[in-house]
Protein 1
Amino acid sequence: MSFGIPSGAKYILQTLAGAGYEAYLVGGCVRDLLRGASPHDWDICTSARPEESKACFAGRRVLETGMRHGSITVPVDGRSYEITTYRAEGPYSDSRRPDYVRFVSSLEADLARRDFTMNAIAMGLDSGLQDPFNGRKDIENGVIRCVGQPDRRFREDGLRIMRALRFAAVLGFEIEAQTARAIHESRATLGRVAAERINAELRGLLAGQHVGDILRQYPDVLCQFWPPLTPPAAPGQDNPRPCRDEWEHTVQAVNAAPPCVELRLALLLHDIGKSACKPADKSEIGRLHGRPDAQLADQMLRALKFDHKTRERVAALIECYDERLPPQGPAIRRLLSRLGAERFFQLLEVRRADILARACGHTDIRLMELDEIKRIAEEAVAQGQCLTLRDLAVNGRDVIAAGVAPGPAVGRVLKGLLEQVLNGDAPNEREALLELIARAQPPFENSSGSGKSAVWAR
Ligand code: ATP
Ligand code: MG
């Protein structure tokens, strides 16, 4: 069974065992090994108390990452191993964290505090699997099931609801019926979970290959922290809800997009102003009902502590969501110029997902058109075609030298030149552009913009 276990993990397990303690791999790494995937982190649980674990690695660098909760971290060969003492958790009075943790001597007690059966399996180097909750069978069947009573486990820690959805979206596992029912019924406990923790799980969920299934089955959970998403299926609400088809379209579009959180957030929220309903409670988000999509989306992302960059990009994508995309060079270059290459290509991805989700009969033609737009845009970028003022073969000094009074008129002239170049009406060559400026006289001094020439028409 030691296949796939890094030598650093073996060294730690052997060192603890050599000192007379029990030690096992546990949690996500065991789950991933059993389903044939590569673990991205390695957790070890042990009967040794934190000071005892520390003493086992005297002479090595040991990080005291969570002594109070029983954890130390030992880096070996460039990997970090978290070693945690068997522990049980006291009662949860705030649905966030246990009132206290207590070190215990039984592995089974430690496994019992873990969230799902698939995450409650221990693997020893010699002693094989310890699997008191039949997690292995659940992994084989692709099932997410709470350890213990689901409603109690979700009331203890509301984040487990989001973890269940995230695991389901990423692994493509089914959430077992009682666990699923408890998720719906206990979703209000999410209200007591820190926004940052929800954020991390939501990002994972959105990047999951099976995100569509989860959005379809658990929209009520998302509405718990984002009331404006109020879905068509939410029971017992007197809201003017978006029709089922609209929600289904959104779900399919999110699922069809590449697994990029920004793109998927833009697709999830792009129609939010239209479909926003009376919120279920009087939260801050609820009061924003009726604002334009991008602003409302920004407020929702802000409430969930999304970083500035993500918020800005999502709002920008929503703002240009309905932009016309004619498959002709000038129009493409103008849009590339206005949005910038990165946003332009993101918009194409968003559009592709939208088309795939509509499947309205002209899908192939529309996708081919999108491919053509992408090809033209990629070519423009690869050839270094002029797309911004900075790319123009003349600059402000040239314009002033040609007789335009310094001031706003200079910018207008440059913009007019750029427009002509983007449209293919003028080459981006210095002589030709200087000639255009010269022909556009008189009078440049007129900064009111009333000059008649197309050069400064805008
Ligand atoms: P991944 O790291 O792939 O996201 P993981 O299962 O390793 O998945 P971690 O957050 O690294 O998740 O947690 C390690 C282990 O700790 C879990 O496998 C689980 O046994 C336990 N665990 C983590 N969070 C909780 C929680 N909120 N409630 C109960 N057990 C938890
Ligand atoms: Mg992990």
Note: Confidence is low (pLDDT under 50) at residues 233-242, 276-291, 443-458.
Protein 2
Amino acid sequence: MKTTVSRIAGHATDLFVDGAWRKPASGRYFASYDPSTGAPWYEAADGGEEDVDAAVNAATQALQDAAWNAITPTRRGGLMHRLAALIDDNKEDLAQMETRDNGKIIGETRAQTGYLPDYFNYFAGMADKIHGEVLPINKTGMLNFTMREPVGVVGVIVPWNSPLSILATALAPCLAVGNTVVAKPSEHTSASALALAELCMEAGFPAGVVNVVSGYGESAGHALSRHPGVAKIAFTGGTDTGRKIASNAAANLTPCTLELGGKSPHVIFDDADLERAVNGVVAGIFAAAGQTCVAGSRCFVHESIYDRMVDRVAARARAIRIGRPEDPNTQLGPLALQSQLEKVQRYVQYGLDQGATLAAGGGRPPIKGNGWYFQPTVFSAARNDMKIARDEIFGPVVCMISFRDEADLIAQANDSVYGLAAGVWTRDIDRALRFARAVDAGTVWVNTYRSASFVSPAGGFKWSGYGKHNGFEAVREYTRVKSVVIDHSGLGRDAFVIQLK
Ligand code: NAD
């Protein structure tokens, strides 16, 4: 079976374990829905504990197999370059698949799948440049060096909002350093992970190096996070789920990387280039219909320009072209899930109940059919203590909040349980740097927003999680350091005394 849009539409997909398609032990399949119509478009295998066990065993076996562990790092990098080329060849189909599965507009999914080859090429280039060190040990006649080794089997649990890109942030560094992977995609978006696993096989990765078990979080995800054969969990998703996963993993002392939710402050000072700032704010919240972890959902505006900025952001929000996600002219597609649409509706009501004012949007757009569309929504007169400013809505809703001065801004910006990202628009570099130092955020953008790069370490603080992806930080996440001490002095030393000299 080849996992392309045309092949899976109307069919059922299986699990991908040990280089082959496998039926789920449960024998069950569940529907995956097209958010632009609300109708099911394929069925995914309902994997569970037995399937996860089979996948972890296959991944463990692959680690022990010379076909993977004796390959030179340069050749491992070569496999990844080949995978990058295959992704490039298939990028249009992968983009169509993502758009169909989670409703993200085609312009965005094309940008994401177009970026993936470079993502894999970057980590491919690292494969033979990862090394330990020789340390100047404080003992005579001894040599101390470190080795940086793969951690082993990595369990990767992925959300639905950017399924392929988020899987890649773990998969690429994991493969570069020689790990094996069991991936559990979101139950809402299984297709692209299966397609990627297939491309890995086509690229020549040995069977068992990349496995995909689709299924629900409470069954397949739960089993993966507590499996004793898993050496590391890479999780991206909601904060509550992150807590459950970390506590499951703790039973085996399995370390985790947790990329969780956010409520990111996006700041406009009165000295900013206001045209660029408005663009940044609009794109920062309405791209992907606000369903990005780094969405700039709390927009802080200096009080002297507050009313003007609300008007401008609201006018831009009203002008956004809402439509079917596969139409290249569409700027805002549907939300990915019906439950997500209902959540956004609930939060708009909370905002109104607590006294915020709708400057734009707040309802369903007049689009025919049963798609899960919602208007780009701008709340003015919002305060940082309102529920709409405290909770992650994960939808196209921005809270416009005014601030007096830098001290007031920092106090409000940091008054959040989250600490994922922040943005600031100002022409004053000193002010920008003061903000960057003071704000609790894993990434700070100055006069730009959502500029991601595979070289740039990303990850949150506080309830936004811990650990990093991208750059060499990702290599650290997926390797372990072993210290080797050799006595080459020829001296007889007292076996019962720790050698202090
Ligand atoms: P989610 O937490 O509901 O699900 C994420 C994944 O976890 C899915 O694969 C799901 O099946 C699995 N899961 C659910 N319950 C589980 C359990 N008990 N044990 C093991 N696995 C379980 O998140 P979502 O709704 O798919 O995604 C939205 C969330 O992801 C938002 O909060 C968003 O901020 C966050 N996110 C964070 C980042 C980041 O880099 N920080 C990036 C994208 C999304």
Note: Residues 157-161, 166, 184, 186-187, 216-218, 221-222, 225, 236-238, 241, 244-245, 259-262, 293, 392, 394, 420, 460, 464 surround nicotinamide-adenine-dinucleotide (CB under 6 Å).
